[in-house]
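*** Protein under study ***
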Amino acid sequence: MDTESMWGAAEAARHIALPQDSDDKYSRGVLGLITGSAQYPGAAVIGVEAAARTGVGMIRYLGAERAENLILQRRPEAVMADGRVQAWLIGSGMDYANREPVSEKHITAALSQNVPLVLDGGALDVVRRVSTPTVITPHYRELSRLLDEPVDEIAAAPRDWAESAATRLGCTVLLKGHTTYITDGVTTVAVAAAPAWLATAGAGDALGGILGALVATHSDAVLADPAQLVGLGATASYIHGRAAQLASAGGPLTILDLCAHVPHIVAELVAVAGDSAPAPAPAC
């Protein structure tokens, strides 16, 4: 590891892509999701909701029919058809030991495309099949299973294990916890913005959606320099944690409450970026 730092608003503000007047829904970024399952359709709904509120031009969803129907009830603008994407979010709400055939088919097709990947939940093992820049988002138990290492050891030294996993797997690792570590094995950053109330079902699905949206809006930059995934992962963790703080206000929260606060946090970061921009040169 060459560097390690804590990630805050000033750093996150540099990783928000602002739409321009010339943009359309395609140039703003299209995120594809292969998430959810017949057993866990809600994970797909949460991921789509979080991604939409983070900011992309379009969301494409490929997955279980039950999840499709629930997504369309919540987000009718989501597209239920294959097509061009700038990034894929794969695995939230899936059973790694028993992925549905339709999801496996879509995953195989996604892996043939030259776009960045976010792998979550039941698709973490797919990292061994990838050929494009990839970030995985395990918690301690998932990383334990992926590496076949004791979970207690990972919990005792999460930064070290995140770095080891990044090196062993050849990807960026976002290891979730009270302090989240994001590393590519060279650069490591830490984020500790989330309240303890965030330890609730669906939190990881929302983080995946936020991260997927950020990667889709920075796809070209990631393909040119995969190290960009460290900053994008840290920014997603910061947005996720700050939105949870607002949703909680010191008490319990639901994940849809968290998602509802994401645009406010993005706006905060846009303001921070504007405040830090160099002043225009005086007129002569």
Notes: The chain has one domain: 3-273. DSSP finds eleven helices and nine strands in the chain. The first helix runs from residue 9 to 12. Strands lie at 3-6, 30-34, 58-61, 87-90, 117-119, 134-136, 172-175, 180-183, 187-191.
